[in-house]
User: Fold NB-ARC domain-containing protein from Triticum urartu.
Amino acid sequence: MLERNSRWCRLWASVVLVKLHFAKQVHDKIGSLFDCKAFFSVSQRPDMTELLNNFQLKLGMRDPDTSRARKVEDIIEELRQHLKEKRYLIVVDDVWDQPTWNTIKCAFPEDINGSRVVVTTRVEDVAAAACQNDGEGIYKMKPLSEQNSRMLLLNRVFGSKNDCLPQLKEVMAEILKKCHGLPLAVITIASLLANKETSRKSWESIRDSLGTQLATNPTLEEMKSILNLSYMHLPAHLRACFLYFGMYPEDREIWRDDLVRQWLADGLVSNLHGHDLEDVGRSYFNELINRSMIQHGMICCEEVVTCR
Assistant:
């Protein structure tokens, strides 16, 4: 990460799938050092009016008047006035094309007051445009080292960075080799292993299911095969609930209780030993998070209340 002195921005770009987690950690860790902060996702086909309205809400601005049509230019001007003379931290996640970025960036005043804008993208041309073709402003996520991959997996499976059964070490090394240092692959497989029997046979089954291509060709298609493997290992009741997420637009923040009520309405939640159905539905939700099938969002009173 290198700072540019000429303008307001420190812009990062990442071409790996776990960029969101990294940027979110930065946002949460240093956000208190700024006058205001916001984190919002863009996705592939954004509605710019809705996107910018959401940006305003993230900044704590007044609720937009949705009773009348608002021009993108007017919303941008409101954002510029709100951010003017403030020191702000904004994370713009998952930008897919340059025209979208060219519109969003107009909302940021160019005051030199220590403000920062973090952009994440999977497209190198977008990264270059966001940094005005200054390659020093781009941060590319590198694969995890063998040691860090092992620590990530062990911490997820055993709750410890060093506690691995001797009979599993060889299989673990083979699994990690196939993950090729991709954090999303490691954490997804680790979440799958955490819900399986801790035996060499069980781990070998997961290793064999990964195939051989990922070790030499860690492409998006191979990542999809890992995610598909996790889906196929879901219990039947969770698989049906997980498919519900297909109704929501990409990157939409989903409220847990709304989701659980939809599951209940369609009879996807079973009455377990007389327990309250909504409590059972929330346990389904939490299990999907624990399996890394969905990403947690807002936390209230130590409970995850939204997800993506």
Remarks:
- Residues 36 and 60 are 9 Å apart (CA to CA).
- The first strand starts at residue 36 and ends at 43.
